[in-house]
Amino acid sequence: MQQVAGADHATIVVRIGAPATLPMADLRNNIDLNADWTARDLARIWHPCTQMKDHETLPLLPIKRARGVWLEDFNGKRYLDGISSWWVNLFGHSNPRINAAICRQLEELEHVIFAGFTHASGIRLAEHLVELSPPGLTRCFFADNGSAAVEVALKMSFHYWRNLGKTRKSKFITLANSYHGETLGALAVGDVDLYRATYGPLLMDVLTVPSPDCYLREPGETWAAYSARQFEHMEATLAAHADDVAAVIVEPLVQCAGNMRMYDPSYLTLLRAACDRHDVHLIADEIAVGFGRTGTMFACQQAGISPDFLCLSKGLTGGYLPLSVVMTGEKTYQAFYDDYTKLNAFLHSHSYTGNALACAAALATLEIFRDEPVLARNRELAQRLATSVAHLADHPRVAEIRQHGMTLAIELVRNKATREPFDWRERRGLRIYRHALECGALLRPIGNVVYFMPPYVITPDEIDLLARIATQGIELATCD
Ligand code: PMP
Questions:
Q1: Going by CA atoms, what residue is nearest to atom 2 of ligand 1?
Q2: How far is the CA of 148 from the centre of ligand 1 (A)?
């Protein structure tokens, strides 16, 4: 028998003897079907992005099934997935179309080595991605998660210049407050202390320039004006270091893990022109913001630009399976295309590169974009997101509500006038997380920022529900 923290012996006996598919009625008989799974989990699993000691008091939720925007635990309690399960889910859990595509693929081919071999789903997916993405991105290099895509883009950029004989170009420029993943290269070009600081001694040196993060603009200053002003730092850094710099890497429009801070598309237009002028690559990490999240299919499109490398993952498979891709152009591709003995090839590889099931899920996801008016529907949903929380603009503990399409963030502060933040040790966001779970919603504030990033199949009523729960949570978490 498993030892279950906080449960009495009699309860444990009943629980373990119970069949796996107890009806909802058992909740009313006080049988907690979550607890056994939780105990077994905590005995064996080390979860990501978690101080495991928190789970002495914070419930860990075992999810039994999920449909659409709803997650359901083993007790039959439902949770509205307000953050698309870490920003990956686009068209709901257990989406019939994606399910069917994966099943079809499974009958044919689950996986095959992607070096020397290929498959129809990978080829179709690459063709589809090239059609959809900004002009000039004609080549797809697959990997299997977002961080790996960032590593690929960094290595490819560096290697490109090396193949051209420009061996000095080995540095990267990044924005303050940026986040690009957790592997050592991706972490090095990130700037969120919480994840980076400990590993500082292991990380390559990068050039970090101030962010265009518009939360920091002067009162009355427009997003565009502030973004242009902040661009001066980037221009100066490029001018001083271009000979040593391979690429600038940015998260277009939203610095998601960096407290959902946002900036104006005009920054990207300026950056594209400057990168061209200084002969430096532009890497757009759209792992979080790609596939309609900010209103356009890709955030770069709002600035009318094409990056040299476009990193995509998360929503690529509709939130089903790990897959990422780095897209680049012919010029890059040709710089590696040579006789083998020249040793110019890009030899980066992952065992699961181009996994056929993941490619099938991604294709089905892109077909939904092709067949349904997703972006138009998102515009209406984004408007509903805005109106659902508009009442919070005057809240004494809300400094700003900001939004790019289907991403909306509410910045909580101790003092609205001075914008003095809450001390991070108070963990105000965690109180909102707890409250939301009690009310049947998954909201996972980043520090003192509550945000909504729901699947695109959320209904207007569900948006209102999420907003009501967030509002109550904000009241409770900020009242002292
Ligand atoms: N880049 C950005 C902008 C991200 O938001 C993330 C993940 N949150 C990553 C890279 C890393 O992706 P993954 O978690 O799949 O490694």
A1: 180
A2: 9
Domains of the chain, start order: 96-371 (3.40.640.10), 374-438+450-474+476-480 (3.90.1150.10)
- Residues 22-67: tens digit of each pLDDT: 334 345 566 899 999 999 999 999 999 999 999 999 999 999 999 9
Q: Is the pLDDT of residue 106 over 60?
A: yes
Name the burial class of residue 103, with classes exposed (0-12), middle (13-18) and buried (19+) by CB atoms within 10 angstroms of its CB.
exposed
Q: What is the DSSP letter of 364?
A: H
Alpha-carbon gap, residue 407 to 328, rounded angstroms: 26
Give nearest CA residue, ligand 1 atom 7: 181
Q: State residue 421 phi and psi, 5-degree precision.
A: -80, 160
Alpha carbon distance 345, 141 (integer Å)? 13
CA 146 / ligand 1 centre spacing (Å): 5
Task: Enter the tokens of residue 104.
Answer: 């079809």
Which of 451, 480, 442 lies closest to 389 in space, CA to CA?
451
Note the pLDDT of residue 29: 61
For 465, other C-beta atoms within 10 Å of its C-beta total 18
- Closest ligand 1 atom to the C-alpha of 186? 10
What is the 55 CA–ligand 1 centroid distance (Å)?
24
CA of 220 to the centre of ligand 1 (A): 33
How many angstroms is it from 287 CA to the middle of ligand 1?
6
pLDDT in tens, 404-440: 999 999 999 999 999 999 999 999 999 999 999 999 9
Q: What is the CB < 6 Å shell around ligand 1?
A: 145-147, 150, 179-181, 251, 256-257, 285, 287-288, 313
| pTM of the full structure | 0.94
Question: How many other CB atoms are found less than 10 A from the CB of residue 351?
Answer: 9
Structure tokens at 380: 């209406």
Instruction: Give 11's pLDDT tier (boundaries 50, 70, 90).
Output: very low
* CA 177–ligand 1 middle distance (angstroms): 14
By most ligand atoms within 8 Å of CB, the mutation choice from 147, 259, 352 for ligand 1 is 147
Q: Which residue's alpha carbon is at the smallest distance from atom 1 of ligand 1?
A: 180
**Atom 9 of ligand 1, nearest CA residue:** 181
| Per-residue model confidence (pLDDT) at position 30 | 67
Is residue 397 within 8 Å of 412, Cβ to Cβ? yes
Residue holding tokens 């939720």? Answer: 61
pLDDT digits (tens, 9 = 90+) for 176-224: 999 999 999 999 999 999 999 999 999 999 999 999 999 999 999 999 9
For the record, the structure tokens of 352 come out as 């699961």
